[in-house]
Write a structure and sequence with these properties.
With 229 residues, the chain is α+β, with helices and mostly antiparallel strands.
């Protein structure tokens, strides 16, 4: 019988401590040590690349400069920690639906619409009844924890992509792809080379609306048609 109680899957306690305390503390430690390192290197009396920059860093030598320096590095550390948090999803499972909270956005998928759930590299993928990828993002919980929870709530967790054999590598001008889809993948390749993740994700959604699923294998794009049940 499927579990009826909600299950919320986020970072485990140790990971939260590392992200919210360890990362900012590491930045503060580095920022505090840099002025001492800079002054030590300036004392060598030898040619030093970017010597003016070392002088600026080494000039942090009284209490108020140290306080400002620590505050700046603490802010950097907190920004990195929050970025890590917002780039991976919290998963909330019930027997009737699954909710993915990613930063200030949320995606909810009804259980009846879920045809398959599986891990693809570092990302969790959810397919609907027409094999669309309705979710494909990193998650805070590990794949092992997710697999156990999805199965406990009665979802069809798979050990891999059930449509893996249908994927083909994309090449420009592929004769078995409609021209409009080929153009989308060409534009997406440019976005991937520029590391424009948001644009690449939007173009993946465009391809899917045209009837084709896209996934990345390293620097290569693979594609397959939708499989309607």
């Amino acid at each position: 019988m499927a579990n009826e109680r909600p299950t919320v899957l986020g970072f485990p306690v140790i990971d939260r401590l590392v992200i919210y305390l360890g990362v900012p503390a590491l930045f503060v430690l580095v920022g505090t040590a840099l002025p001492f390192v800079a002054r030590w290197m300036l004392s060598w009396g030898t040619a030093l690349p970017l010597r003016p920059a070392f002088r600026v860093v080494g000039a942090v030598d009284n209490w108020w400069k140290v306080a400002v320096n620590v505050a700046i590095w603490l802010v950097f550390g907190l920004v990195v920690a929050l970025t890590a948090k917002n780039e991976s999803a919290v998963v909330t499972l019930t027997a009737g639906e699954v909710r993915f909270g990613l930063g200030d956005k949320a995606t909810t998928v009804a259980r009846a619409d879920v045809a398959a759930v599986f891990a693809d590299g570092k990302r969790l993928v959810v397919l609907d009844q027409e094999s669309r990828q309705v979710f494909r993002e990193r998650t805070q919980a590990s794949h092992q924890v997710l697999a156990a929870a999805f199965r406990e709530h009665g979802y069809p967790w798979q050990d891999g992509d059930p449509y893996d054999a249908l994927f083909r590598p994309w090449t420009p001008g592929a004769p078995d792809l409609p021209s409009e889809v080929d153009s989308v993948l060409s534009a997406r390749e440019s976005a991937l080379k520029k590391k424009a993740a948001k644009e690449a994700g939007e173009l993946r959604d465009v391809a899917q609306k045209l009837g084709y699923v896209v996934r990345d294998q390293g620097t290569r794009q693979d594609w397959r048609p939708l499989v309607r049940s």
